[in-house]
Structure formats: C-alpha cells, structure tokens
Amino acid sequence: MAAIIRATQNPEFPANVSFVATPKPNTQAEETALSLNTPVLTLDPKSANYAGEIESLIQEHNIKLICLAGYTLLFPKAVITNHPYKIINIHPALLPSYGGKGMYGRFVHEAVLANKDEQSGCTVHYVSERYDEGHIILQRTCAVLPSDTPETLAARVLEQEHLTYTEAIFNLLTEK
C-alpha cells in the first residue's frame, strides 16, 4: 500500500490514491496512509451492506481501479461482477503455485522453502470470485537461496512486490 501511495505522489504517475480502506480503525495501514497524507476510511467486511458501501465509494470517488493490499478475504462477488477487470491484487508467489485460501504471508514462503523451489516471486492478478485465480497481469521472480528462511525470502519477495504492483498499475492505466 505504501509503495503504491508513494508511486502515485510522482506527478508523472497516471493515478492518485483517493483513499485507503481498512477493516477497523487504528491499524498499521491507517497509520501509514495518514503519514503519507492519504485519507482513510473504515469499512467493516462483516457489515450487512459492505458491498453497497464499496459501490457507493466507487461512484462517489469515480474509482477506475481498486488495488487490494493485504486483503485476505474474498472480495464481494457483486462488486467483482459490476467491475470486471477493475479490481487487482498482489500475491507473494508465482501463481498458480501457492495460491488459494490460507496461502498468504509466511505460509507461502514456508511452502516454497519446503518444496525446495529454486525461485519465487510475486504475481499481480485480477480479483475473481475465488482466491488467487484471476487472470495474471504481471509476475516478477527472485531466487530462493540455500540459506533462506521464511523471513529472508519474504523480504526479497516484498521488494519485488513493490516494483511489480506499481508497474502493473502504471501499465493498466496507460494502456490504449
């Protein structure tokens, strides 16, 4: 999220971040967004009108692209249906490997190491009704080193995530 906000603060970047939505107040995401002068809204995913609240915000702010970052729930089906190819996410693995429910953060890196893969990376993809199964937009790889731990691998993958996500957003918004 912070990498996206920083990228959009460059006047040459073809977008701005209208707001950051968090599921509850007083989160690290909220603190970071506010420190980067980005408005924060709280949207409770358990709210009965969660999808309706998202739809209202899309209209009110004229949102062209929704970028999920750290979002581990399934996104509301109605919003996906109403905005195909307008909702993207990043995953800390080379999908379709290591995707699906429960495959996030440390769990992904532990699985990569357990399988003795020689490379890992990240994937920017469109959000679909199932975890990590949307069309792949962009991937970037990094080596898995013999000395890697889940933490060291996660740090290298995160570096690639920051580059890949902002590149994908830029490309999507400048395609003709």
Features:
single chain, 176 residues, alpha/beta, Rossmann fold, four-stranded mixed sheet, two-stranded parallel ribbon, 6 strands, 38% helix
Sum this structure up briefly.
By secondary structure, the protein is α/β, with parallel strands linked by helices. It has helices at residues 2-8, 28-35, 50-61, 77-82, 106-114, 150-174; strands at 20-22, 40-42, 66-67, 87-91, 119-126, 136-143. It starts with a helix and ends with a helix.
What does this structure look like?
There is one protein chain. This protein has 176 residues and is α/β, with parallel strands linked by helices. It has one domain: Rossmann fold (3-Layer(aba) Sandwich), CATH 3.40.50. The chain is 38% helix and 16% strand. It contains 6 helices and 6 strands; from the N terminus they run αβαβαβαβαββα. A 4-stranded mixed sheet has the order 3-4-5-6, covered by helices on one side. Strands 1-2 form a two-stranded parallel sheet. Strand 1 (20-22), helix 2 (28-35) and strand 2 form a beta-alpha-beta unit. The longest helix has 25 residues, at 150-174. It is globular, with a radius of gyration of 16 Å. The mean pLDDT is 96.
